[in-house]
Give the backbone structure.
Amino acid sequence: MNKEEQKKIYIVATPIGNLEDISHRAIRILSEVDVVLCEDTRVTGKLLKHYKISSKLESYHAHSHKNKEQKILDNIESGVVYALVSDAGTPTISDPGVKLIHEIYKKFGNNVDVVSIPGPTALITALSSSGFMGNQFTFYGFLPHKKGRNKIFTEIFESNRIGVFYESPHRIMKTLQFIHENYHDSGKKICVARELTKMYEEKVIGDISTVFSYFKNNEGKVMGEFVVIIDKP
Ligand code: SAM
């Protein structure tokens, strides 16, 4: 890349399912950078192949060694331009890449350009199609599995804001059951969005009992990727 653009890293949003959901700018940047840093080279490899992008791919994920991080920092210092992507959506949003960006700022302060190329993110895709009104929401990412979990639910259900969180297919029924047992009479609405932008995309919106019963009675729908939204009162 242009030498004047040195000490730079791009954060590039990629599709959350449908491969068409990527910007022209994202494709150009991914083609131009020296190295694309990704969570899983097989996942990102498919995307690059689809768009005939031949940039070098390297993995950077939750278990990447400190040495790997240091090497990336050294390379940035000597002018290597990276693009950071994740398996899906906007890197750093509930994704391991956030640690790398934190370290980059720690080392270079404002002497580095961290340029985010906007695109899909599951929370906004879900929220924008929920029909829940109001400009204020709180995003909780993935909820803790044990410690602090109940406290967050108390916060969500006492809040005047919309609450959004991510959930895995293994835990979604447990979570919906908990919400049903503890908050079915809260009067709040819930939206469970799954497989957004994909073939089996579905949004189930309604009172807590209705949404819980729907998934309880449709085991085949308890799969894929989930975003849960709790409406404000
Ligand atoms: N960085 C991503 C983003 O911008 O949304 C989020 C990454 S996080 C590791 C993965 C979680 O995002 C999934 O477990 C699921 O809760 C949510 N997610 C990602 N893609 C989704 C989709 N197509 N439909 C519903 N939820 C999705």
Q: What stands out?
A: The longest strand covers residues 137-142.
